[in-house]
Amino acid sequence: MTLNAELRAFFEARQKQIPARVREIMKRAGDELAESGQAVRALGVGARAPRFRLPSATGRTVALDDLLAHGPVVLVFYRGTWCPYCNIALRAMQRHHDEIIALGARLVAVSPQIPDESLSLKEKHELDFEVLSDVGSDTAKQYGLAFDLSHELAAVYDTLGFDLQRVNGGHPRTLPIPATYVIDRQGTIRWAFADADYTRRAEPEDVLRALADLRRTGTEDTADAFSCIDN
């Protein structure tokens, strides 16, 4: 089963558990974000990847430049531990982590949640890759991914017990559009996926193909390998 087939199955099962009024609010917010076109305007193939220095779940600072010194980077933006779709997607990336390393790349995931929450996620799902905290979403903003939840949807998340005020370090309404990037050693984005629909994510197999293409062609070729940016 592909990752997105797994996510779709989860979505359909979960819809039966959510009250109709809440489903309507979630759908309305999702439609508005899609219609805004922000996912399309986010950084894409050929753009220079904004540099970052972010705290990891284990307390050290991780810089993009340091990661790139060892090879390409697979950069995943996710919403947080509270998001079941994110957890499914990160577990899928973990299953392909050895293949990513074998292709000479490093995998790193970024969310707006505080390091303690990232550590909980890393331990719970036994993630071998770095999980970084972008509290305030400054890095997500540089990639064009950060957006603010509507007050209506933020209130729904509060009633569901997500407590984004705490887990996001005082920035409860700002989240990233889920996205995945393959960045070459020169810091250029070579493959990109961003979708305003948080129930859809980059397929790990597509990431692996992008890395294999990058290794085969080298970074001197034009950045036209693969791209999937939706709204």
How would you describe this protein?
The model is unreliable at 220-227 (pLDDT under 50). The chain has eleven helices and ten strands. It is 43% helix and 17% strand. Helix 1 runs antiparallel to helix 5. It has a six-stranded mixed β-sheet with strand order 5-4-3-8-9-10. The protein has a two-stranded antiparallel ribbon with strand order 1-2. The chain has a two-stranded antiparallel sheet with strand order 6-7. With 231 residues, it is an alpha/beta fold. It has a single domain, classed as Glutaredoxin, CATH 3.40.30.
Give the arrangement of secondary structure elements:
Elements: H1 3-15, H2 20-36, H3 38-41, E1 53-55, E2 61-63, H4 64-68, E3 73-77, H5 84-95, H6 97-102, E4 106-111, H7 115-124, E5 130-133, H8 138-142, E6 146-148, H9 151-159, H10 164-167, E7 174-176, E8 179-183, E9 189-194, H11 204-217, E10 228-229
Parallel strand pairs: 3-4, 4-5, 9-10
Antiparallel strand pairs: 1-2, 3-8, 6-7, 8-9
Helix pairs in contact: 1-5
Strand order in the largest sheet: 5-4-3-8-9-10
* Strand runs, count: 10
Secondary-structure element series: HHHEEHEHHEHEHEHHEEEHE
Task: Kindly report the name of the CATH homologous superfamily.
Answer: Glutaredoxin
**CATH secondary-structure class:** Alpha Beta
Would you tell me the structural class of the helices and strands? alpha/beta
Rg from alpha-carbon coordinates: 17 Å
Helix content: 40-55%
CATH third-tier fold name: Glutaredoxin
Which band does the percent of strand residues land in? 15-25%
How many distinct folded domains?
Answer: 1
In terms of quaternary structure, what is this? single chain
State the distance separating the first and last CA atoms: 24 Å
Total helices: the number is 11
The major beta sheet can be summarized as: 6 strands, mixed
The rough form would be described as globular
InterPro entries: AhpC/TSA, Peroxiredoxin_BCP/PrxQ, Thioredoxin-like_sf, Thioredoxin_domain
Catalytic activity: a hydroperoxide + [thioredoxin]-dithiol = an alcohol + [thioredoxin]-disulfide + H2O
Protein name: thioredoxin-dependent peroxiredoxin
GO molecular function: thioredoxin peroxidase activity
